[in-house]
Amino acid sequence: MSVILRCGSPPVRYQSCTMPAPPHPPEPTALRESLLARFPVFAQLPEEALTRLLAAASARRVAAGTVLFEPGRACEGFPLLLQGSVRVSKSSDQGREIVLYRVSPGEACLLSGGCLLGHGAYRARGVAESEVELIVIPPPLFDELVLHHAPFRRFVFDTYGERLAEVMDLVDEIAFRKLDTRLARLLVQRGPVIAATHQNLADELGSVRVFVSRLLRGFEERGWVKLERERVTVVDAKALLAFAGA
To answer: Domain containing 213: what range?
Structure first.
């Protein structure tokens, strides 16, 4: 989880849930295997329901940097991630961006489900952090699955519980932890080798580069990390964890 402050960021591409299908969509058998491998819950559906889902759902492949959804846009489907990573974030009018959570393969997007269940619009932005492959379930079929198929309904609400816990952890991290301990924890979580600039790390922590650089130099003087150009190597993870109070 992270907080990002961006100024003068380059424009990003936008692709909605109704973007044109890729020129070479997966074969039905391959799509079925991918879906069941990443989302075993669908193996519990009746065969007829699974067949209709595969026929109605659309497969997508989008490039890194593509904006999948953004505030104010209606959700036009329930995405299930097969490959890649999607960053879901909320931005302020001043340009500060807080990352709420990331969607990984085998996971669904909490906000998409919420928008479909509540018939509302998105209140955050979702951006592909890498090339992403996903399946999008159309809203009518999503409603039917939630109403009539208990395994899928449990999957949706389990997703809510997990994401809510992540957001609560994020609130705790930002509101109650000091920057130095948060940095120490981040280095251990991302290590042992973190390919990032000091500005990248500052973005992750919602701080500014000068403060993070000062703390990193202090960690290096204690022998906890080694600093190189656009790289931080964790040398003593135990010391960092002890410092962070973990």
So the answer is: 177-244
Rounded Cα distance between 213 and 206, Å, is 14
Q: What is the CATH number of the domain that holds 34?
A: 2.60.120.10
Model confidence pLDDT, tens digit, residues 117-154 = 888 889 899 999 999 999 999 999 999 999 999 999 99
The structural domain count of the chain equals 2
**Claim to verify: residue 144 and residue 217 sit in the same structural domain:** no
CA–CA separation, 4 and 129 (whole Å) = 14
Q: What is the DSSP track for 209-224?
A: HHHHHHHHHHHHHTTS
The answer for residues whose C-beta is within 8 angstroms of residue 226's C-beta and 6 or more apart is 220, 232, 233, 235
Phi, psi dihedral angles at 216 (to 5 degrees): -65, -40
In this predicted structure, the answer to whether residue 106 has a pLDDT above a threshold of 90 is yes
Distance separating alpha carbons of residues 197 and 140, to the nearest angstrom: 45
Same domain for 132 and 18, yes or no, is: yes
